Amino acid sequence: MKATVTTHYTATAKLLHWLMAALLFGLLALGFYMHDLPLSPDKLKLFSWHKWAGVSAFLLLGVRLLWRLTHRPPALPEAMPKVMRFAAHAGHLMLYLLMIAIPLSGWLMSSAKGFQTVYFGILPIPDLLDKNKELGDLLALVHKSLNLLFITVLAGHIGAALKHHFIDKDDILTRMAPRHSKENRA
Amino acid sequence: MKRITLALAFATLIPTVHAVEYTQVQADKSAVNFTYKQMGVAVDGKFRKFSSSLNFDPAKPANAKASFDVDLASVDTGAAEGDDEVAGKAWFNTKAFPAARFVSASIKALGGNRYEVAGKLTIKGHTQDLVIPATFAAQGNSGVFDGSFTIRRADFTIGEGSWAKFDIVANDVLIKFHIIAASK
């Protein structure tokens, strides 16, 4: 890996970031919406779609992690205080951990509740757990709690990006924007 | 002389193999399960309560009789909201039709431990003729019956209205039973 300091994200990194942003917002909205619906064929359909989208997000995260590990992201602004740097790294680490833990908890919950996840109705994902009502209810609580935590960290992520843009007036937000790299490539 | 009386005494004690008739169904050791497909994914469920009357002598299957009553409100779909939904009007309508009933008409030996049970299944006011393959095995004083058969839920109007299409919940439902009955 080259040790040179890059100033921009690769187009792939940006694409993965925004693709996952859209997918995860959709998953969150769908998850909270479908949960309270009365049982109907549509509800079962939405649950399946949510599970397929969740598997997709997990796969996309795998690609993203591989890309992240092989491509150094641009450095944080020189002027950033140590505490803020730490907070930024801790926040990103939390986001990654939650993006791993949330789909896993959803998959395990489905198994424990006796509803296997079959990707797009074609590819069966093995059940790691046997059907177990108590465990299923517990995992549902875990899935929900992790998502509430995710929303909290996400609010911090978005809030920090906006603070960098409007208060610090640095390029933290814009360097993740689609056209940024073209403008800065000399 | 003494020897003969002893032999006679034993002879009355030992039941002949052909006279074993299994009649006491042990509901707590028996099970009625079902499997169906939800958007192509197999989902299992079971019924917690059922009662049965049985007269089965493996040597005389032609004289055998079986009837089952499954308490439909005892359904376990794996989710509380599923149990409530399935007990409701669109599915079993358990208030009007509390039980599914199967009554055998004839039982045929197919050789080995295999039998064929023909009879009528009534659910939700609809009756269908069924032929159910079953196996029988003697285990000590008990007889173990295993088998499975597929019904189409639409034949019994199970799942009406928005559930009537088969895109989400498939028409075919596999019923599996494991019945243990003691001999008298």
How would you describe this structure to a colleague?
- The complex is a heterodimer of chains A (186) and B (184).
- Helix content of chain A is 68%, strand content 2%.
- Chain A is mainly alpha-helical.
- Chain A has a two-stranded antiparallel ribbon with strand order 1-2.
- Chain A is elongated and about 55 Å long.
- In chain A, 17% of the residues are buried.
- With 184 residues, chain B is mostly beta strands.
- Helix content of chain B is 11%, strand content 53%.
- Chain B has two helices and eleven strands.
- Chain B has helices spanning 2-13, 80-87; strands at residues 22-25, 31-38, 41-47, 50-55, 65-71, 75-76, 99-111, 114-123, 126-139, 142-152, 169-183.
- In chain B, strands 1, 2, 3, 4, 5, 6, 7, 8, 9, 10 and 11 form an eleven-stranded antiparallel β-sheet that branches.
- At the A-B interface, helix 2 of A face strand 3 and helix 2 of B.
Question: In short, what is this structure?
Answer:
Chain A is mainly alpha-helical and 186 residues long. Chain A has helices at residues 11-35, 41-70, 82-113, 133-166, 180-184; strands at 118-119, 123-124.
Which sheet architecture does the biggest sheet of chain B show? 11 strands, antiparallel
Figure out the total of helices of chain B. 2
Q: What is the mean pLDDT of chain A?
A: 92
Strand-pairing-aware structural class of chain A: mainly alpha
Rg of chain B (C-alpha, Å): 20 Å
Low-pLDDT sequence parts of chain A: 181-186
